[in-house]
């Protein structure tokens, strides 16, 4: 591996190990999730000017008014999604930088990720290709419609917050599948929820309070 990917100084393995220790202290228990975060070069998913801060446990700007989520939140949502069963096909709404998709990729069979801002989607595609991550499919579209051609999914993750979970997404969840999402108004109170589809309907749990950019309708080219 070259130093672009392996990192030096503030992007080195030692810096990444420190982040993983912080996540463990914050309560992340899933070893596989922690290992993937340890090995995923988050500094490649942020602007070069931000690279030295890539292994701080904070959200960072990625352009277009969007942010790469805080590593703790990425870890928590990934852990919540994996609990309770193997997840083969996973849909992500809000590709953004592509970091969350890169974290999911080694943990599931295939990731389908949709993004409404084309510029972000293009950049994510480049980074994922640099990292030779091949089981992530990207699409430029309004994630409120899901990805019907690929449904049903074993799990769906939203990384932007709607006021209410769009009905189309619930319908694309297979039985036994889970949907993990922040719900609520920007700047107001948002909750991270997990919805499980059972034979009888949908069950909802509230996991914790979070702060996400809003899920918006339509696409931007
Ligand atoms: N998972 C991303 C987080 C990016 S922030 C990462 O790891 O970097 C949330 C992203 O959701 C933004 O890029 C935003 O443009 C996108 N988004 C918001 N509403 C959307 C919608 N309706 N469909 C698809 N993407 C959406």
Helix-strand blueprint:
Elements: H1 3-6, H2 13-25, H3 31-39, E1 60-63, E2 66-68, H4 71-82, E3 89-93, H5 99-104, E4 110-115, H6 118-130, E5 136-140, E6 153-158, H7 167-171, E7 173-183, E8 190-198, E9 201-210
Parallel strand pairs: 3-4, 3-6, 4-5, 6-7
Antiparallel strand pairs: 1-2, 7-8, 8-9
Helix pairs in contact: 2-3
This protein binds S-adenosyl-L-homocysteine.
S-adenosyl-L-homocysteine binds at residues 66-69, 93-94, 96-97, 99-100, 114-117, 120, 142-144, 159-160, 213, 215-216.
Strand arrangement within the widest β-sheet reads: 5-4-3-6-7-8-9
- Major sheet characteristics: 7 strands, mixed
Give the proportion of residues in helices. Answer: 25-40%
| CATH fold naming | Rossmann fold
Protein name: Protein-L-isoaspartate O-methyltransferase
Keywords: Cytoplasm, Methyltransferase, S-adenosyl-L-methionine, Transferase
Active site: 69
GO cellular component, one term: cytoplasm
